[in-house]
Amino acid sequence: LASVVYNKPLNRAQDSCSQRCGELLSTCSCQVTCQSLGNCCPDYKEFCLQISPYSGSLMGGKAFLLENTAFNTSSVLTCRFKEKIETRGYIAKDGKAHCISPLLYETGFIPFEVSIDNGLSFPYSGTWLSVHHSKVSDEEKCALVNETKWQYYGTPNTYGNLTVTWTHQALAETHVNIEVWGYHETGDSYSENWLAEWKYLYTLAREIPNTGKLTFTPVPAEGNYSTWDFGILRITPSSYSDGQSNIPSLWSNGHALAWHLGKDFRNDPSAWATAKCMEWDRKEEKLPSFKEEIIDCPCTLAQARADTGRFHTDYGCDIEKGSVCTYHPGAVHCVRAIQASPQYAAGQQCCYDSTGTQVLTHDSTGGSTPDRGHDWGSPPFMKPPRIPGFSHWLYDVISFYYCCLWSDNCQFYMKRRPSSDCRTYLPPRAASAFGDPHFFTFDGLNFTFNGLGEYMLVESDLTSLRVQGRTQQGHLPNGTGAQGTGLSAVAMQENNSDVIEVRYSEDWNLEVLLNQKVLNFSEQTWMDLKGLFLYSTPDQNITVMFSSGSGVEIRGNGGFLSLTVLLPEKFMNHTQGLFGVMNGNTEDEYTFRNKTTLPVHASPQQLFEFGANWAIENGSSLFTYDTEFLLNDFYYGEKHNASFLPVFFPYEDPADPLVGEMVSLCDSDPFCRFDVLTTRSLQVGNSTRLSHQNHRLLVEHLEPVISCGWLDHPINGTKNGTNYLLGSTISFICNQGYELTGSKERTCQASGAWSGDTPSC
Q: Taking Cα atoms as reference points, which of 303, 308, 311, 363 lies closest to residue 339?
């Protein structure tokens, strides 16, 4: 909106983007939309920085180029992140400026400014994307060859040399140092003085040739360094001093520092680890329990993979990558809860076997374990337990080494981290729109609405969630306008989150906009944003995961967007818009803004009136109008184009050769038939048929499943079966010499209770 309305007094002297990026000035613009609108200030590109690469690990030390800059090579370059963290940049021989990213304790887009007068003024600005350390590509790190050996070094049968390798071109110096850093958290758990710190410990190798490889025999670290058991390696040019912060660096993965632990560990690793495990167990005893507030697991693998607003694949056990589940033997797929729990920022993990049922720690060491620290961290980050990756290492991973990997005390770990079952899990409800737009509401009605304009698909007073859709006219193969429309853009926001818009650009590529700026997924496919996470698959399926647990999935296919919105149970009775009132009752699905309703069997013409009623206004629009076409047709034009009248009942002409092909493609799918007839394209019809099929499958996978909860085996006996869902039967047998009283078999009933009585031997 601001991009097109000039109402400031003319003052030519001000019209520079120096320190004004993102603003609209009186004679020109410093907003991201100015390039496509052609109204940028002359120095927009100079002061509003584009950078390459645009992302890197939160550990920092990565150089990035400031494009469109040409500075005097004698200038002193200072880069300031978040208005307080300063790093020293450099200017290459060609005059191009580079900043070094800092060590941060958070992920997401971080604003920065640049000074070339030794920090007096900071006229240039941009944003840097800070990324979870394990989501960064391997080329950007140094590699611990055979990482398991490093992490088990000193335990039985693990000794000898260790090798670290790196891309030597990544550091432009002849000699490098290799340092050891440790991570710890100090202060009282869950209090204001709980703080996180990465600390330089010592230099492992000094002034070695930058060949890209070092092999050494580890010796126990001296003094109190050997008490640090979680840490990382850093390789830096030798010209810098030991432990100097925010300099060009290559970090390794964070790992268990078995290889440098003291003599007490090497002499008897199992006894050392057992003592550590017991100490951890005593600490856990005193900490508040987080298990009551984490979300329960989905009951089945199908539910877990369908609930994309709240659960995401755990990369350590992924069915699409061959189910390599090292820590979860017997599982084929695990998911993690996307959002950390509200108070303690804890995480949930759920694993499933090849039959699609949950694997529980009560039955198997391959079961899923919840996390005191969510692996991905959680906003506002910065302090424990919300530090991405590293808080989780300290509470949930190094303790797993103590109890399960370096000693044989796993029962202590599993007692503190038992799997959650699914008794309280409630699947979300799904609504979809696709094709020549056909709408499937949360309560299961479907209708076709071929309006041309911008409409409210769903809005909720619960979290101020708004999802808006724009439709554009379809085209026939010969290029003339069709008598139908399809979704061309979807924009969304919840509370005061970032605004995400997914749209077809004018050359029909899928674009994702973050607060009006086109995003680039070339480096990162997962982004931690304000109030949401964003994920793009290689074939451009976009998923937006809002902090309430609501999810929006968008796919581009066949020239129109297809969209699915998933809302958790708490949104019941809190929605309105084209996707209806989500309350399990279809009678009030077609509710107008003024609360009047249409009957379930309303005619297409009546439904056209219902759709038109949900047109949005410029004041509440989330869309970006950054081209002449969008301004003329949607910003200055009507929000619902009343002069566009679609076909309500397309005619099937038996003499039309397309009709025969349509019947064999669509069979009895009415939406597929409708779209072939209105667009005269089998491709559009086919993508509608597939979207319809996907929606039906999704709704099927999200059917609620009854679970009766885990059953133990009797003391002095065994049980047969680990499935605790409706209709499953568990049988019990006593050991030799014992007799069974109670029920031999118990079956999970529709009431959610087991039949029979508890057996004993």
A: 311
Contact 47, 232 (CB under 8 A): no
3-class SS string, 424-467: CCCCCEEEEEECCCEEECCCCCEEECCCCEEEEEEEECCCCEEE
Contact 669, 700 (CB under 8 A): no
Asked whether residue 485 falls in the same domain as residue 620, the answer is yes
Q: What pLDDT does residue 13 have?
A: 52
Looking at the structure, do residues 616 and 585 belong to the same domain, yes or no?
A: yes
What are the φ/ψ torsions at residue 460 (nearest 5 degrees)?
-135, 135
Q: Indicate whether 26 belongs to any domain.
A: no
> Angle of helix 682-701 relative to helix 670-679, nearest 10 degrees?
150
Parallel/antiparallel/unpaired status of strands 349-352 and 429-434: unpaired
Residue 18: burial class (beta carbons within 10 Å; 0-12, 13-18, 19+): middle
Is 255 a domain residue? yes
Q: What is the token pair recorded at 221?
A: 């670290």
Tokens matching residue 138: 């391997």
> pTM surpassing 0.90?
yes
* Tens digit of each residue's pLDDT (9 = 90 or more) over 559-597: 799 999 999 999 999 999 999 999 999 999 999 999 999
Same domain, 57 and 173: no
Q: Please tell me the predicted confidence (pLDDT) of residue 451.
A: 95
Which 8-state DSSP code applies to residue 665?
Answer: H
Q: Are residues 756 and 734 in the same domain?
A: yes
Can you tell me whether residue 31 is helix, strand or coil?
coil
Q: Cα(224)–Cα(277) distance, rounded to whole angstroms?
A: 20
Looking at 645, 671, 686, the residue that finishes a domain is 645
Residues 82 and 149 in one domain: no
What is d(CA 273, CA 400) in angstroms, rounded to the nearest whole number? 10
Do 249 and 372 belong together in one domain? Answer: no
pLDDT one-digit tens code per residue, 235-251: 999 999 999 999 999 99
Examine the fold and report which residue of 83, 109, 131 is the final residue of a domain before the chain moves on: 131
Give dist(CA 302, CA 427) in Å, integer. Answer: 11
Residues 481 and 538 placed together within one structural domain of the fold: yes
Task: Indicate the SS3 state at residue 336.
Answer: strand
Residue 53 domain boundaries: 49-131
Measured from the Cβ of residue 347, the count of other Cβ atoms closer than 10 Å reads 28
Please give the structure tokens belonging to residue 469: 């859709």
Per the structure, the count of domains in the chain is: 5
- Looking at the domain assignment, is residue 4 inside a domain? no
CATH number, domain with residue 720: 2.10.70.10
Distance between CA atoms of residues 363 and 386, nearest Å? 31
Distance CA(646)–CA(433), nearest Å, equals 17
d(CA 622, CA 303): 31
Phi, psi of 651 (to 5 degrees): -90, 130
- The answer to the question of residue 256 being in a domain is yes
What pLDDT does residue 226 have? 82
Residues in the chain, pLDDT under 70: 1-14, 558
Q: Is residue 143 located within the same domain as residue 184?
A: yes
